[in-house]
Amino acid sequence: MGAWGTAIYSDDIALEIRDTFKEIIIEGFNEFDATEYLKENNKELLDDPEDSCVFWLSLALTQWKLGRLLDEVKDIALKIIDEGTDIERWVEDVIDMKKREKVLKNLKEQLLSPQPPKKIFKKRNSRPKNYKIGDVFLIPFEDETLGAGRILKMSGDTVFVELYIMKPLKDKSDFDLVNVGSTKQFLMQWCFDDMLKNRKWEIVHNKSVDEFKMPYFWTQDAYDNSFILIKGTDDYSGEITDIKISKEETKNYPSYGISSPHRLPDYYFRRLKEMNIIK
Questions:
Q1: What is the share, in percent, of the chain residues with pLDDT greater than 70?
Q2: Closest-CA residue to 55 (of 70, 76, 69, 33)
Q3: In terms of Cα–Cα distance, which of 138, 158, 182, 165 is closest to 232?
Q4: Cα 221 from Cα 127, distance rounded (Å)
Q5: Which of 84, 11, 95 is nearest to 49 (CA)?
Q6: Euclidean distance between CA atoms 167 and 18, whole angstroms
Q7: Do 218 and 245 touch, CB atoms closer than 8 A?
Q8: Rounded mean pLDDT of 54-59?
Q9: Distance in angstroms (rounded) separating the CA atoms of residues 260 and 190
Q10: What is the CA radius of gyration of the chain?
């Protein structure tokens, strides 16, 4: 990924943030959920000083254009502009730096001006759901091994799943529900249902779901970077609490937000390695 010009969207990351935000809105989610989704699924970008500037500036411009600019996003973007954080990566080329300064000046004026009316998108017709609560499915990893999970809850185009802590399977025929489902530890996460709808995550069994209490989720406050807990509810939104935890304690809770089904396998595989399930 990289930039090929000084305009806000002349950057691969900026385009990805713009397009993903619009896609989530078109799917029927609001700007708050879309923003949380992007934050939760781009933590590596947000940890990088340069990429995080691209992230917030692109998101702010996109939200403004759609009449959905959140105060949090606006404040962070304005802070980046006022403190000159983004300009630092342009100092080696004086001409481009001057062009970027003008782009940022115009963006600041735009963000401080009244937004256009909120743009309303017609939600795409949802394909019929070909899955149900309790369905056990296989998740392919990049190395062609398989993990497994189960659907615990459904809400709109999202599902709340548990991912089994297990040694990856070499083949579908190796799946054994008794052994796989006997573990008492699970990774839990909300995610979009694309891979279930198109059968990329193959359903191999159904195991009824007993009543259970939704967990708390952790997230990071955008203002002071503290870690707080979100109380789980029957949909992906959750309820914000004033409970603060340490970074180390985040390992005890699932992360807040809706995961991309394209990225969830990587997260799942990485967690198995961290637990020494995969050597």
A1: 95
A2: 76
A3: 158
A4: 35
A5: 84
A6: 37
A7: yes
A8: 96
A9: 9
A10: 21
Beta strand residue intervals within the chain, DSSP E: 135-140, 146-155, 158-164, 186-192, 203-206, 216-220, 227-231, 239-245, 258-259
Residue whose pair of structure tokens reads 């615990």 in the numeric block: 152
Cβ proximity of 8 and 81 under 8 Å: no
Average pLDDT (195-205) is: 91
Bigger pLDDT: 139 vs 277:
139
Distances, alpha carbon 202 to alpha carbons 150, 171, 175, 206, 264, in Å? 11, 12, 12, 12, 15
- 125-167 residue pLDDT tens: 555 678 999 999 999 998 999 999 999 999 888 899 999 998 8
pLDDT at 1: 45
Rounded CA separation 236/256 (Å): 9
Cβ-Cβ contacts under 8 Å for 14 (sequence gap 6 or more): 8, 54, 55, 57, 58
Cα separation of the two ends of the chain:
30
Mean pLDDT is highest, among 8-12, 93-97, 108-112, 254-258, for 108-112
- What's the maximum distance between 2 C-alpha atoms anywhere in the chain? 65
Q: How far apart are CA 53 and CA 174, in angstroms?
A: 46
Asked whether the beta carbons of 6 and 99 are under 8 A apart, the reply is yes
- Percentages helix, strand, coil for the chain (3-state, rounded to 5) are 40, 20, 40
pLDDT for 248 beyond 60: yes
Q: Which residue has the tokens 């879309």?
A: 34
Closest CA relative to residue 195, chosen from 263, 133, 252 = 263
Which neighbouring-strand residues pair with 216?
231
Contact 70, 35 (CB under 8 A): yes
Q: Under DSSP, is residue 155 helix (H, G, I), strand (E, B) or coil? A: strand
Rounded Cα–Cα distance for residues 201 and 129 (Å) = 14
Whose structure tokens read 């937000």?
A: 257
- Please report, to the nearest 10 degrees, the dihedral formed by the alpha carbons of residues 37, 226, 239, 217 taken in order: 70
